[in-house]
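Hi D.,

Good news: the full-assembly prediction came through. Inputs first.
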Amino acid sequence: MATETDHGLGEAVAARIERRWATLSLVIVAFLVGMAAYIGIHQATMPQGRVETADPKTLHLSGEFIESNLGSEMQPDGSVTVRAIGQQYSFTPQCVVVPAETPITFRATSADVVHGFLIEGTNINTMLVPGYVTDLPVRFKAPGDHVMPCQEFCGIGHQGMWGKVKVVDKAAFRDMAAAKRRLTCVD
Amino acid sequence: MSDQPLFSLRNPWFGTSVGITAAIAVLSAIAGLIWLPLAQPNLKLAGVWDAICSAAGVPRAAVPEAGVKPDFKTSNVVMTSEMLTRVNQVSIGRGATLAQRCAICHGPQGVSDAHSPNLAGQFAAVTYKELNDFKTGARVSVVMSPFAAAMSDQDMKDVAAYYAYLPRVPSNSLDTGRPAPAVVVTGAPMRNIPPCGSCHGDIDNKAGSPWLGGQSAVYIKAQLEAFASGARRNDISQQMRNIARQMTAEEIDQVAHYYEAQP
Ligand SMILES: [Cu+2]
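Then the structure:
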C-alpha cells in the first residue's frame, strides 16, 4: 500500500513530465509559426497579400487587362508592373520582357479556366484563376531567356500553351520603355 | 485529488494550458494579420484595418485603371460557351428571310465557290460574333462592313441561328483521305501552337472559334496571314494572333488545304 509521501512524490514526477511535454509542444508550435513567417517574408513561398476580383468574361472590354494595356509598364518609382492574361491556349503577351535586378510585379488573370503560371529557372509558380487577379512580386537576377509553360491542365490544347520571358539588361529596358508605354517581346 | 473538477479555473493545469493556447492564437493572429502584411511594402496597405482585411482574404474588385487605351477597335462581344446554343425556330425563320441578301456571296444554302466563308452549319456564336465585329469596326471588310452596319443585334442573332440550322455541305475539294499535317494533329507546343481542333471543333470547341471543314483554302490562308501580320485584330485578347504569328508560311498553306478537304 502506498503511503502519503509516495503519493505526493508520484504527483510531483507526473507534474514535471507534464510540464516538459507542454514546453516541447510549445517550442514546436513556435518553430512552425516562425518558419511560416520566415519563408513568407523571404519569398520562398509567395502567399498572395490580397484578394482582387476581375470578371473573366469582360477582361477585354474595360479595366487593366484590356489588350492595349497588357505588357510591361515602367512605374515612376523605377519598378516594373507586368500585366498578362492566360486563355485557352496562350498567354497574352506571348513574350514578356522585363529588366534584371529590378522589383517587378506580375499581375495576371485568366479569361476562361484555371491556368498555371510558371517561369522556368525561377521559383515563380502560381495559378491564374478565373475571377481573381494573381499579384506576384518578383525579381530576376540576370538577363536571359526563360520559358513559361502553363502547368495546370486547362483543356485539350493545354500542352501547346507556352509563353516566353526575356530578361534584359536594366539600361536596355529603360531605353525601350522611353519609346513605348507597354512593352512586350512579341515579334 | 480526483474529486477536484478538471475544467475549473482553480485547476492550475487547466488555467495555464488555456492561457497559453489563447496567447498563441492571439500572437499568431497579430503576426499573420497585421505584422506580416505590413512588412510587405509592395502591398501598399492603408492601415491596420486594411492589413487585416487583405490578409483575411476579403475580396475587392481590381482597380479599374485607365492605363493605355487601344488605338484600334477591339471586339466587344462577351463570349460564353452557352451563347446562342439553344435552337429557336422563330429566330431561324426570321434569319432565313434576312439571309436572302447574303446569298450572292455566301450561296443560297450557305455554301458557295466564291472564296467567301461557307456559313451552313457554322456555330451560331461565331456568325453572330463576326457580324457584330463588322458592325463595330473591330473587323473590317469592304463588302461585309456596310451589310453589318444596317443590322440590329436581333438580326445578327437570327441570321446566325439560320446558318447554324442549315446542314454542312462539303466543298468540291472534299478528300477525307488526305493526311492531316503535323500542325493540325499535334500543334507545335514549343511555339505555342496547340492542335487546331482543340478550339475549332474537331476535338473541342472554344466559344467563338469557327468550324473550318469545307472552307475555301484561299479564305483560310488569307485570314491566317491577316492574323499573323496584325491586319485582323478582332480575336479577343489576341487568342488567334498568338497562334498564327508562330505558324510558318508552309504550315499556313498546309492547314488551309487540309481543312478545305474536310467535311
Ligand atoms: Cu493553360
